[in-house]
Amino acid sequence: MIRFALSLKITIGAASSLTVAMLAVGGATAAHSSTESVNHGAGTAAAAAAHPMSDVADCTANYSGDLCWWVDADEKGVMHPVRDAISNWMSQKESTCISQNFDSNGTWNDCASTLYNANGSYGAQVYEASNDKGDGYCVPPGTLVFNLAVTPYAGTATNMNDSISSNRWRPNGC
User: What is the Cβ-side half-sphere exposure of residue 23, based on CA atoms within 13 angstroms?
Assistant: First the structure.
């Protein structure tokens, strides 16, 4: 049944590459994992067709309930939707972050430059260190922080650009 549905979707051209990949692994649901990323910004026309442009509207429409972050300021670069609380962003891979944070493995750690909270009721709390330690900042529901280079952690003069290492959700907002 799954193979027939997959063939039908491919034949009529209704499946995105993500849907095809999810169906091919055994009928996964439409829910995404916290490590999913979407390319945004510079690239060829072929790359743009393979990876849709991502912005706040895309985050809201496709990842409602998530914190979305981008590698570069102003919603540029690769976008990552984050549904879960992640205590150590070094556990999440992102190859474009190698040049950002000098991590030869390329991880989310110290790589975020834009944040958007697409969650309608929870505050998205981010921290400078793993395990929810160090300076923190809460992004209220529906809030875009477009340039972390000019946004300090709460109560400090330290900007947040390329320095976030963990996140959690605050059920009562910010």
Answer: 17
Q: Are residues 4 and 87 in the same domain?
A: no
pLDDT in tens, 129-170: 999 999 999 999 999 999 999 999 999 999 999 999 999 999
Which structure tokens are listed for 147? 């340039």
Q: Is the pTM of this model over 0.85?
A: no
pLDDT in tens, 34-67: 444 444 343 333 333 333 457 899 999 999 999 9
Closest CA to 131 of 69, 67, 86: 86
Q: Is residue 109 within 8 Å of residue 58, measured between CB atoms?
A: no
Contact 124, 166 (CB under 8 A): no
- Whether 115 and 140 share a structural domain: yes
Spatial distance between the Cα atoms of 24 and 39, rounded to a whole number of angstroms = 22
Q: pLDDT by residue (tens digit) across 63-87?
A: 999 999 999 999 998 899 999 999 9
Q: Tell me the sheet residues that pair with 144.
A: 116
Please indicate, yes or no, whether residues 20 and 105 belong to a single structural domain of this protein.
no
| Half-sphere exposure at residue 5, Cβ-oriented, CA atoms within 13 angstroms | 12
